[in-house]
Amino acid sequence: MGLLRLLVLAVLASEPRAAGGAETVGNSSEGLLEFSVGKFRYFTLKRPSPEEAILRHISSNVTFLIFQIHSQYQNTTISFSETLLPNASGTGTDKGLVFILRPEQSMCTWHLATLDAKPVQNVAIPLSYSERDPIPGGCNLEFDLDIDPNIYLEYNFFETTIKFAPANLGYARGADPPPCDIQTGQGSRWRLQYDVYQYFLPENDLTEEALLTHLQRMAEVPQVKASAVKVVTLTANDKTSVSFSSLRGQGVIYNVIVRDPFLNTSAAYVPAHTYTCSFVTTEGNCSSLGRVSSKVFFTLFALLGLFICFFGHRFWKTELFFMGFIFVGFFFYILITRLTLLTYDVLLALTAVAGSVGGVFLAAVWWRFGVLAPCLLCVGLVLGFLVSSVTFFTPLGNLKLFRDDAIFWVTFSCIAVVIPLVFTGCLRILNILSCGLVGSYSVVLAIHSYLYTSLSYITLNVLKRALHVDFRGAFLNVPFQTNDFIILAVWGMLAVSGITFQIRRERGRPFFPPHPYKLWKRERERRVTNILDPSHHIPPLRERLRGRLAQIKELFRKEQPAGERTPLLL
């Protein structure tokens, strides 16, 4: 058996190797995959057929290797031996192992398998490092592997958290590893720094091909620095855990580069990816991101918002209903979400009812009392909320200062309150601006229920902050790609068109309509006293309803036959 294995290796050595960044050839032999350092390779794993990966001709100046394998959503197992041991194997969609080379060793192997019933498409690569490079996960005390270069990823609706094990200093072949926690000076692993990178996949692209292609840009240090965005730099004293805002349906790849500033060397962990949704389960599936209830709710909301964008100031009571709906609905949703465990559809239905009540109440306040101050205060606060949300949607929202809830909410509230105060002397302009900006933004929210757009997170991030305490520590980075530029242009075009149209339309007209209740009362008194007014002779409502009912009854009454029906007298 050993002779047969050597014969197979001799045959492999005689075969030409493919050049380029990725090898896409099939198996070199049945159950055996040959790899080259720094070369990606595509292959398919099946459940009854495990594969063995082999790397030959390893240079003598290489002290350790990181072999990593990736798939889209199906789990793959990588191990040092055929027998799976907790400290020598890993299972997941993005997994890797560190192989510490022995003196004179020039070949190493790994075992690859999957327990999934369907074939799994994978891409894998072995990367080599020297004794001067730090070892990712070399001081692991939290996870199962002895040396763990993997990034562990957890997500929920609010945030996505990555965790990784601390690195250790590199060392020569055959030497003992440096101690992890005995010293804390510049001669120990405490001098290492960790750069956390984030890379966004193309929006609305959930294909396996796109993921495996873009993962190749996040495996090696130079490509990571050139392609991804550095979010934060951690020191050895910081906790090796970073949180990000969850972007449901948007593919994101994370990686960490550990740097040794003393030797000016670096190494990359194994990148991890997520869509913050599932490809397997029915609930929260990536292929059906928008719920039917969300689509119905935000579509109707957008239709009303589009009407308000162009005609809100002219139809004043309709605008008050719209603004009151937003004002009450937002706070009601936060309240019942934090106090109850109701499902999303029930929460949305109750929010719609509460918002409608709030809208009717605000319109009724204006109709009965005719006071502009509370109505325009509500309108101005809604506009201020949108302006404040846009402010924290910028990189300003990632400042460490605003991770404190008190500072964040005080600053947020001050910006929201300043907006109506600034426009105190020009209330009509305030109202028209609110109609144009808020009404047009409702269209953006409706688009998000059908198609992912980062602009929806302008307000969703604030909602998450109000609902989830731990969201305060999350980075709020979002992609800004072609779709977002198009939707931003649509939002701006609608807002500018609506504001311009209403300003031109209202030129020369009264700033606001007169008091509705006084008009109604004056009209009623006029009809009572003026007998020449035709409306004076209109019967009361009760008599008119009785008359209508009598006419309806006549339609169903059986028609009497004509002619004499009594017998003739003799």
From TrEMBL:
Taking every annotated instance into account, which residue ranges of this chain make up the domain TM7S3/TM198-like? 299-503
- Specify the protein's topology with respect to the membrane: Multi-pass membrane protein
Domain of life, per UniProt, equals Eukaryota
Cell wall biogenesis/degradation found in the keyword field: no
Q: Which InterPro entries match?
A: TM7S3/TM198-like_dom, TM7SF3
Q: Which GO terms describe its cellular component?
A: plasma membrane
* Ranges annotated as spanning the membrane: 296-313, 320-341, 347-367, 374-394, 406-423, 430-451, 485-503
Short name of any one Pfam family annotated for the protein = TM7S3_TM198
Task: Extract the signal peptide range.
Answer: 1-21
Identification of the protein by name: Transmembrane 7 superfamily member 3 isoform X1
Q: Which organism is it from?
A: Vicugna pacos (Alpaca)
